[in-house]
Target: Spermidine/putrescine transport system permease protein PotB
Amino acid sequence: MRRHLSTLAICFIPLTFLAITIIAPLHAMLRYDDTSPLWREILSDPYYQHRLGWTIFQAAFTSVSTLLLALPIGWSLARLQFFGRNLIQKLMMLPFIMPTLVAGVGVLALFGEHGVLWQGWQDTPYLLIYGNIFFNLPVAVLAAQHGYQSVPAYQLAAAQTFGANAWQRFYLIELPALKNWLIGAGCLIFLYCFSGFGLALLLGGQRYATVEVEIYQLIAYELDMSRAAVLVWLVLGVTALAGGASAWLGRRHLVGKPIFRQPETPHGAAQYAILFISIILLTLFCALPLLAVAFQAAQFSRHIGTIFSANETLFALKNTLTFTGLTLIAATLLGFTHAAMARRVAWLRGMTFLPFMISPVCLAFGVLLVYPDWTDSLIMLIALYTLIAYPFVTKDILATWDTLPSHYPQAARMLGASPIQAACKIMFPLLRPAWRRGLSLAAATCIGEFAASLFLSRPEWTTLTTLIYQKLGKIGAENYQHAIVLTGLLMGLAVGVFLLLGNGYGGQNKGTE
Model:
């Protein structure tokens, strides 16, 4: 009886939070008036057909392209031991922690009107595709690397003994092992690209805007909530299918513990060529946007004094750090209670990733519908920040908790410790590294949060991301230069917080699996 009561108490906090921030907004959108007649109109309208078709195409094209690019890179990291390998694996975490605004500005700094590499590519579809690949290539590379590493060494040795060449070994042995890993990663990449907002807003322009941007424009500029509601349900339907496909097709079956092949020093022209191609691809698609931001920020450093003496910059920086700090406190509480709930009630484990399956634009729209009197409340903004951030904490805590022996707290109880003492003195020290890892990703996410801040924006809630977006929307080279410098500050802040909290989060990152 006591265990049932404690389970109910643990479940109350995360389930109540999810009901308020997800279930109630979704229910409000479902019951929104005057949407039924619009379904046929929107689905038959060439304008909305183009928006939906382009959104699906860019997400699918990015998924396939990213997986193809990841194959040689994943093979190099899984099979070859070379100088800088560990550093590359750690640097691949950078796109994970970069705010979408940093990525978007980095792409514009390369190929936009003031691009340092190739100017004049704004208002084309290629910038959004490139930005999507920047964000998602590390996801595909990690999936490919783990897929290659999952192939037992004896299978490769046996195939080589029977005369199979490198291509035959890849096609007959490695590719079947890679399939589930790549399909799961591809579904997640499609999910992100289809429901992405920040990059599409910055890089898509008017012609290549996605459905998420269209929802934002309908609400912010046209106040057309009915059409926005229809588009929201279209987005939710497609993302639900992609999420279900990721869970079903990306499942992995582990049998026993075979001995895996260890990385070896490259030998032969072919292996060196694959390694060289892998480094070039990582440089082109992962490093260049960040280097472009750093280069142009240094180039426009003469504006640093003006920018940091302005009240709007200090105010935005204060808001960013305040909102992040408040969110991390809430994310810690929800992260631990959600992990404990998932440990007690197995079927609730799937709810860990529920906030990832719904875009911030859809959630912000639902909040506007169900809590109209609370949209000017800071509590609602922090709640949306927390909803986006706390699954990172839950995921890492739960993954570590599952590996701990169950008799640790039982032994403490037998020695006279209370449940609270066992939790504080035994379990928390063991879970602290996982908590810090999850908190580092949550902090980086909060610092760069853009969609919720833009939807619920108020002058007194200006953050670094909304300030940068305002600067980019103004005419004049000086405003662009100020935006670049602020983007450099945002990038440095995200990396700094991640390193401060992460404590060595990188390399073989368990959280990304």
The chain has two domains: 33-291, 310-506. Residues 46-79 form the longest helix (34 residues). The CA atoms of residues 342 and 351 lie 8 Å apart.
